[in-house]
Amino acid sequence: MKYPVITPEERRQRLEPPRKKIHVVIDSDTYNEVDDQFAISYAMLSPEKIQMEAIYAAPFSSDFFARLMQTDGVAIPMTGNLKEGLELSYQEILKLLGLLGREDFKDRVFRGSERYMTVKDQPVDSDAARDLVKRVHECEDVLYVIAIGEITNVASAILMDPEIIKKMVVVWLSGQPLYWPHAIEFNLGQDVLASQVILDSGVPLVLVPCMSVASYLSVTGPELEYHIKDKSKVGTYLCETVTSQMSQEMAQNWLDLFHQTYCAGLDDYGDEGAPKTDSMLSPSRIIWDISTVGYVVNPNWCPSTLVPTPRLTQDLKWEQDETRHEMRLVRFIYRDALLGDMFSKLQKAPK
């Protein structure tokens, strides 16, 4: 596939952190976890910086973690059916809009693909991909795509019309830091071919890695109950969704899952490295996806630099090449500032 050429100067200009109000679409596997709901709500409640244009539902399934872990010892509470995952995400987006008092926005919610990309240069047709192509061309300025799920919808739009990369910026929660022993992560690992399209197409990209970056955005039950429960309809819903999944058992489940996936290879302890404990655990939950919204609301909360865009290998490792086009890499998140801004906006949402 031949993509339009963006000069290094044009790319650096496009990747300057946004300082004004921008046009945004969100691509989200909303029902997969508890964090997408926070990200969509946060974006809808930030009109001073974000002009929301559309929301796209992305597919998801539990197959990636199930294959990777090959164990019955850790529960993976998701669907194994991509089509079902897509529909659950679509309906969850509509539910959120109702809680936010934004029923007027429901006609801008689109279903994405019912499967992942299986051939790198062949798009997967969907309402979401076609709408993205249309919106990029119609947008009076650059269109920011906040991608917080598997990225077939966005990659497919680029393959349908490569010219759109000249008028868009993708802000993508995906993968791990470039120094990590691997890039294993849910969004990227399930949708490798589409991820390679994003990295190789030259579309201006802001990458937010998970561990040691977005992972700073952890919250506890008491914190959510204090800041957002009973403050607004959506705040109560978000709080109860998270706290209903907090327990000693779930906390251990997350420790085991991270040890076998995202944190695999971080130690040389062998089997002794499993994070088991006989003492009490202190449950928390990482609200990963709000990192992307926080970046466009206030880039100062998400320090970043320009680096060469890595290649992604089939075995989910970063392959670095200094001659590649640049991307912007988020390196840290000032957690208290970002969460504080989101909490304050959730408190002001419809009662």
- Can you say what the CATH homologous superfamily is? Ribonucleoside hydrolase-like
CATH topology title: Inosine-uridine Nucleoside N-ribohydrolase, Chain A
* CATH architectural category: Alpha-Beta Complex
Overall, the morphology is globular
Estimate percent helicity: 25-40%
List the total number of helices: 13
Report the oligomer: single chain
- Biggest β-sheet strands, sense, barrel: 8 strands, mixed
Structural class: alpha/beta
3D structure, described in words:
- With 351 residues, the protein is of the alpha/beta class.
- It has one domain: Ribonucleoside hydrolase-like (Inosine-uridine Nucleoside N-ribohydrolase, Chain A, Alpha-Beta Complex).
- Helices cover 37% and strands 15% of the residues.
- The protein is built from 13 helices and twelve strands.
- The protein has helices at residues 8-14, 35-44, 63-69, 82-99, 127-138, 152-160, 186-190, 192-200, 221-227, 233-243, 248-260, 290-297, 335-347, and strands at 22-28, 50-57, 109-111, 143-148, 168-173, 205-208, 218-219, 285-286, 304-308, 311-312, 318-319, 326-330.
- The strands form three sheets. The chain has an eight-stranded mixed beta sheet with strand order 3-2-1-4-5-6-12-9, with helices on both faces.
- Helix 2 packs parallel to helix 12 (290-297), helix 5 (127-138) crosses helix 6 and helix 6 (152-160) crosses helix 8 (192-200).
- The protein is globular.
